[in-house]
Design goal:
Blueprint: H1 2-18, H2 29-53, E1 59-64, E2 69-73, E3 76-87, H3 93-102, E4 110-115, E5 121-126, E6 132-138, E7 143-149
Antiparallel strand pairs: 1-3, 2-3, 3-7, 4-5, 5-6, 6-7
Length: 165
């Protein structure tokens, strides 16, 4: 429970810090599903590039949930997804983070390494217009939780989000 609360609070703080811009014109309701699908596709592609940048000997398994949801950001909404990586036996979260940071694959992203409230390492990828991916250790350091957020989107006032995307 404490770990879940810490993760939720961390995500909330991260989303509030990275903010949203979303462009100058609100997205019309008729175009909302198409735009959400595009942001989801871009965000999941970036998560896949993170997975690909980790040397194979460090990861035993990886997965990304096929759907996510919309969450609020400073001035609109963003698509949020979830995945996880299982650390290979005998390897550590720190080794995965070091490999990602030294890969040179993420020049357009600001990478921040810190620790959560329990002293476990976490790595944040902060991008344009509120996009972000947060990797945090769980299950006693045997897995990484992967929380991803698209760029922020501002929808027309008549847009009503619903369900998963």
């Amino acid at each position: 429970m404490k770990r879940t609360l810490t993760a939720v609070l961390t995500i909330g703080v991260l989303v509030s810090l990275i903010g949203c811009s979303g462009g100058s014109e609100p997205i019309a309701s008729a175009s909302a599903d198409r735009r959400i699908a595009l942001e989801k596709e871009n965000t999941q592609a970036f998560v896949n590039s993170i997975y690909s940048a980790v040397p194979r000997d460090l990861i035993a398994a990886k997965r990304q949930m096929p759907s996510g949801s919309l969450v609020s950001c400073a001035s609109g909404d963003q698509w949020a997804g979830h995945g996880e990586m299982k650390i290979a036996d005998g390897k550590t979260v720190r080794q995965v983070f070091d490999a990602l940071r030294s890969s040179g694959s993420f020049q357009d992203w600001r990478l921040e390494l810190d620790t959560n409230g329990e002293g476990e390492p976490r790595l944040s990828f902060l991008g344009a217009e509120g996009s972000a991916v947060l990797l945090s250790s769980f299950d006693d350091g045997t897995k990484l939780q992967v929380n991803s957020f698209s760029r922020c989107m501002v929808f027309a006032d008549d847009f009503i989000p619903g369900g998963s995307y």
